[in-house]
Design brief:
The protein is 12% helix and 31% strand. It is α+β, with helices and mostly antiparallel strands. It has a single domain, classed as Peptide methionine sulfoxide reductase (Metal Binding Protein, Guanine Nucleotide Exchange Factor, Chain A), CATH 2.170.150. Strand 5 and strand 6 form a beta hairpin.
């Protein structure tokens, strides 16, 4: 079941930066996020609803400054066409709560060729 909360409820639950990114489509500065360079094994979950999003085995160093993954947990991500900022991109949102996570690009490694470029502030890591 989709998680729906008011703006006030999300604001009370999240840090100001997480609220800006997850609920207002912001972004964190590159190379500043907690997980962009993390090598820890585990499961990356949505900071808003705790849904599993990415397994650390799909994480790779894209050089972009944000955590990047070549695949997501099945059904975890909803992809939406994004035409903001004069570009055509694909937004990655949590399928469970509609949190904005980042974007997905078609320049990733095998086996998928995808690069889910995700803001660290949108994630929590459940270490293995």
């Amino acid at each position: 079941m989709k998680i729906v909360k008011s703006e006030e409820e999300w604001r009370a639950q999240l840090s100001p930066e997480a609220f800006s990114v997850c609920r207002q489509h912001g972004t964190e500065a590159p190379f500043t996020g907690e997980f962009y360079n993390s090598k820890d094994d585990g499961l990356y979950k949505c900071v808003c609803c705790d849904s599993p999003l990415f397994d650390s085995t799909s994480k790779f160093d894209s050089g972009s400054g944000w955590p990047s993954y070549y695949s997501c947990i099945d059904g975890a991500i909803t992809e939406i066409k994004d035409v903001t900022h004069g570009m055509i991109r694909t937004e990655a949102k949590c399928s469970n709560c509609d949190a904005h996570l980042g974007h997905v690009f078609e320049d990733g490694p095998k086996p998928t060729g995808l690069r889910y470029c995700i803001n660290s502030v949108c994630l929590n890591l459940q270490k293995k």
